[in-house]
Amino acid sequence: MSEETKKTVEETPAEEPNTAPQAEPEAAPEETAAAPETDEAEKTDGKKKEGFFNKKARELEAVKAKLDAAEKNANQAKDQLLRMAAEYENYRKRSTREADQKFNDGISFAVNQIIPILDTLDMAANAPTTDENYKKGVVMTLDKAAKALAALHVEEIEALGKPFDPNFMNAVQQIPAPDGQESGTVITVYQKGYKLGDKIVRHATVVVAE
């Protein structure tokens, strides 16, 4: 061996044996690294839930808006129907009153044409006669006429012995009150009066005691 080779060997230090313990791999970093992934997942789930609830809330608001609109339309339709029903009822009542008025006017006109005939028959029935069959026939005719007037709701105005009422009677004369008669009492009826309900067909013509 040459001198240079020996020097090289001597100068090179001997390697010391590696007696230091090996460091174990640390698990914490792995766990620390896993935490952000969990947070991200939770955030994602939270956003999904939040989006789901927001969507449901919007759907509920839309349904509520539709219900409110439907209720408003229903109320408007109800009000319109009630107004139409009220208008129809008013029209029906008005038409009924007008029809009744026309009917009563027609009856009044017809009765006014017949009353003079009844006046004549009444005078004939009260006139003295020896023909009883004739008088009986006149009275029977007056009875039938009275029934016909009653069927038409035409009533004779009661005047004889009643206090004078200008709403139903016309006084053509006043005479001193006979014995037993009060002043203002009807003592004679010249012409019978008739009424149809509250409508006067003809006023009674009377004589009143003073």
Describe this structure as you would to a colleague.
The protein is of the alpha+beta class and 210 residues long. 61% of the residues lie in helices and 14% in strands. The chain is built from 3 helices and 6 strands, in the order αααββββββ. The chain has helices spanning 3-11, 28-126, 132-151; strands at residues 154-156, 169-175, 186-191, 194-196, 199-202, 204-209. The protein has a 3-stranded antiparallel beta sheet with strand order 1-4-5. Strands 2-6-3 form a 3-stranded mixed beta sheet, with no helix packed on it. Mean pLDDT is 81; it is low at 4-10, 12-21 and 27-34.
Short description:
This protein has a domain at 154-209: Head domain of nucleotide exchange factor GrpE (Nucleotide Exchange Factor Grpe, Chain A, domain 2), CATH 2.30.22. Helices cover 61% and strands 14% of the residues.
What is the typical, i.e. mean, pLDDT?
81
Query: What is the CATH architecture assignment of the domain at 154-209?
Result: Roll
Tell me what portion of residues adopts beta-strand conformation. Answer: 5-15%
Q: What is the helix fraction of residues, given as a range?
A: 55-70%
Low-confidence stretches: 4-10, 12-21, 27-34
Structural category is alpha+beta
CATH topology of the domain at 154-209: Nucleotide Exchange Factor Grpe, Chain A, domain 2
Our Rg estimate from Cα atoms comes to: 60 Å
Order of strands, main sheet, comes to: 1-4-5
The count of helical stretches stands at: 3
Mind telling me the CATH class of the domain at 154-209? Mainly Beta
> In one word, what is the shape?
rod-shaped
Distance between the termini: 189 Å
Name of the CATH superfamily of the domain at 154-209: Head domain of nucleotide exchange factor GrpE
Number of strands: 6
Q: Note the main sheet.
A: 3 strands, antiparallel
Order of helices and strands: HHHEEEEEE
Subcellular location: Cytoplasm
Pfam families: GrpE
Biased composition (Low complexity): 15-36
Family: Belongs to the GrpE family.
